[in-house]
Amino acid sequence: MFTDKAIKKYINYTKRILSHARYKVGNNYTEVPIDSITQLDDKTLELRIVINNNNTNNITVSVVEIIDIDNDVLIIFNENLKVKQTNEGALYVIEIDLKNLGGNS
Prior knowledge:
Elements: H1 4-17, E1 18-25, E2 28-33, E3 36-41, E4 44-52, E5 59-68, E6 73-83, E7 89-97
């Protein structure tokens, strides 16, 4: 099991290497910044990205990916997220839970 100190270092490392996100609508990917990375507690990170709908139609997001500073995909979420044309976009929130790594708390 990881110690609390190791988990803290892993969280700090993860926050440093996450670069941006991209999402897929149809066959096209759109890259967007990660708007925020927040540590919710000792073992949970929250990422927020905005999915924009600049179309005149409804869109369906089928994939959301988190990319690191080396441009490698680290996390993939298969989705069926519908964003109506009347909405400017959607806030996509991801929680990365590291509680299963162990630690003392």
